[in-house]
Amino acid sequence: MNNLRRYFGVASIIILLLAAALAFLNLRGTSSPPPALLDPDFTLWTQTGNSTRPMVWTLQSNVQQDQLGVERTSLDGRDSLRLSLRQNATAQGGTFVSLSETLDGTRLAQLMNSTIGLWVFKEPCNCDADPFGDYSVVLSVQINDGFRLVSFVFTDKLQGVVTFLGHRVIFIPTPSGEWSYREVNFRQEYLLAQWPMPVSAMFSLYFEVGSNSLGWHTVYISQLRSSTNAPLASLEVTEISDVARTYQTFKVGENLAMLTMGLGEER
Description:
CATH superfamily of the largest domain: Galactose-binding lectin
Number of domains: 2
Helix content: 10-25%
Mean pLDDT: 79
C-alpha cells in the first residue's frame, strides 16, 4: 500500500510539472513584443513638487514653471495631452517644450515598421512664409538618432520637404481650431533620404513658440497609435530646398541646424 501511495504521489507531481510547463510554453507562444511607445495616451503621471509630470515621457523645456503647462485633459470629448507655452517680451529667443521616449531594440523596430497616427488640435502656426521665424507657433513630431533627424511639422498650408545634411523636415498642412487626424512614417523618410536605419533613437513631441509670438499658446495631442506598414508605393515628394533664398535656424531641443529655406524664388 505504501508503495502504491508513493507511486501515485510521484505521478501527481510529474503531471503538475507537465501542466505547468505546457502553460508556460503556451504563454510564451501568445506573448506580444513591447509597444513602440510605452504610454501613448499619457495616462501615467507623477508628482514633482507642486506639479505633475508624465511618468514615462522625458520632459524638457527652456522656460520657467510659470510659463509652461503640461497636463492631461479633455477637449471636445477627446482625452488629450495639452502643451502650453507663454512667450513674454523679456524672453531671449524662442521657447520650447518637448516630451520624448528613448527607443532601441524591439521597440525601435516596432516604430520604424509602423505608421504613427495621432489627433492634433492646434492654433494657426504663422509659419508658412517663415517656418521657423520669430512669429511661428510650431508643433512637430520627431525622431532623432544622434546623427540624423526627421521632423514632421504641422503647418497651416505649407506642404513639402526640406533635406539638409542630416536633417529632413516634412511640412504637413493641418487645419487650426479643430481636431485633425494625421499620420507620419519615419521608415519611409529614412528610405527616401537613403539613410541607414537607426539602432537607437529618441521619439519626441516638440512644441516651439517664436520670440515675437507673445502670450500663451496651446496645442493638444490625442491617441498616438501605430499600425504595421503596408509595402511602400511609389511616392511623389515635393522638395522645397531647391528654391531656397535664405537660411533659417531650426532649433530642435539641443540641436541647431541651418536649414535652407525659402519659397517662390529660384536660385
